[in-house]
Amino acid sequence: MSPATPALHPSREALDDLEVLRRGLYGPDAGMRPLAVPAPMAAAALEAGALVVEDAEGVPVARVEDLRAVERDGTDGLAGAGAAPEDAHPAPVLVTGRPVWLSEPSSRPFQHLHLRAPEPLAADRVVLVEGLADIPSPVPDGARLLVLASTALDGPTAGNDVVRAASAGALAAPGARVVVVPLPPDAPDRRAALLTTLGVDPARQPRPDRRAAEQTLAIVEGHRPRGVVVLLTGLSGSGKSTVARAVATRLVEEGTPVTLLDGDLVRRHLTAGLGFSAADRRTNVLRLGWVAAEVAHHGGIAICSPIAPEDATREQVRALADGRGARFVLVHVATPLEECERRDRKGLYAAARRGDIPDFTGVSAPYDVPDHPDLRLDTTGRDLDECADQVLAALVAARSGEGDRA
Length: 406
Ligand SMILES: Nc1ncnc2c1ncn2[C@@H]1O[C@H](COP(=O)(O)OS(=O)(=O)O)[C@@H](OP(=O)(O)O)[C@H]1O
Ligand SMILES: Nc1ncnc2c1ncn2[C@@H]1O[C@H](COP(=O)(O)OP(=O)(O)O)[C@@H](O)[C@H]1O
What we know:
The protein is an alpha/beta fold. Helices cover 32% and strands 17% of the residues.
């Protein structure tokens, strides 16, 4: 029997690099950069001959075939092999291979601006933007603002600000356009390959007018409304994470901070070690609810997307939010089981039906349908933007007080 293929969750920089490689933006001959893999996982992966790379949401984005270990200088060999056997934390092993692309990576802020394929950018009009100070003021008409920065949902990243500011500048310049490439930092080789592919000569770039560049970014401060906890509950595959990410993305794009507590991510960090017994699920959802209520207590917006199968536990989360002076919005993502099972994005229903995953919600574990959610959303055949609009409307209503219950 062939050994199972281990799954790695690499750094955001490594995922960014894979995304740019996948789009062909480093040129046709570019290969994969080595990935740092914990030593025990590397040993298992090398034995299996392959490694699956998953993004932060657990979506498999690539399978690395023909796997081999490389030394830090790029030569073949088992990096870290010199670590003493008694070392509890042996150095990570660098591995590389041939990537076979799987699912599209999960969406993120400004994804619609990402360059998806090598494309001539009218080199004489390109302005390279690697930080706020590179954004000319005013932006020349017809400019192509090529932003080399990573954007992300999790936490304030400088990249989000840079893209927002570039977009603001481009709005005022007829014919100007912003394109984003999430180039990893400290990768001069990759930067050079990208610019060659796009036909951009950095030596011929205009010097940016650094005057008042930071002011390009309009930060709306003003009155701070009350915090909100949004709990999206529903079966696996119903669309909780996808809708939650879409809502969070909209908020980030308009400059509103948001904390996204996705079921899978929470289980990897905050509630690592818990299983899927009824008791463990309760603990999982309550811990998540507690953190969300803390975020909302300080005026923030927390969007949570666990299955949260028990009505009583969901009501406890409501009480936690109430207790911290925050508003609570319950969204039932009511996509029927048949549709969730048809989607089966992660292959879990098939495994549950085979009996490989016990206590699987909707198949072999219960789900209490909420009686009176603030919003019920069946995503079957629905446009994601419409679903996000509905959740946003409920969120905005709650934030402004309209959504309060007696
Ligand atoms: N037995 C079983 N039942 C349901 N789900 C399972 C199970 N085992 C693993 N998974 C995966 O875990 C994700 C659900 O975790 P949650 O923390 O949201 O569940 S719960 O609220 O504690 O019930 C769920 O993710 P989503 O598909 O995003 O909902 C599954 O990927
Ligand atoms: N309107 C929609 N809203 C959300 N997801 C949708 C919609 N239409 C189709 N889908 C698809 O359904 C799947 C939902 O998966 P996911 O968001 O991970 O669900 P969950 O987090 O509930 O397990 C994704 O593959 C998504 O592309």
